[in-house]
Amino acid sequence: MSVMYNRVALIGLGLIASSMFWAIKRAGVAGEVTGYARSSGTRDVAREIGLCDRVFDTAADAVEGADLIVLCVPIGAMDATAAEISGTLKPGAVVTDVGSVKRAVITAVGPHVPDGVHFIPGHPLAGTEQSGPRSGFAELFDNRWCLLTPDGAEANEVKKLRTFWEALGSNVDEMDADHHDLVLAVTSHTPHLIAYTMVGVADDLSRVTDTEVVNFSAAGFRDFTRIAASDPTMWRDVFLNNKDATLEILGRFTEELFVLQRAIREGDGDHLHDYFTRTRAIRRGIIEAGQDTDVPNFGRNPVRK
Amino acid sequence: MSVMYNRVALIGLGLIASSMFWAIKRAGVAGEVTGYARSSGTRDVAREIGLCDRVFDTAADAVEGADLIVLCVPIGAMDATAAEISGTLKPGAVVTDVGSVKRAVITAVGPHVPDGVHFIPGHPLAGTEQSGPRSGFAELFDNRWCLLTPDGAEANEVKKLRTFWEALGSNVDEMDADHHDLVLAVTSHTPHLIAYTMVGVADDLSRVTDTEVVNFSAAGFRDFTRIAASDPTMWRDVFLNNKDATLEILGRFTEELFVLQRAIREGDGDHLHDYFTRTRAIRRGIIEAGQDTDVPNFGRNPVRK
Question: CATH number of the domain that A79 lies in?
Answer without folding.
Answer: 3.40.50.720
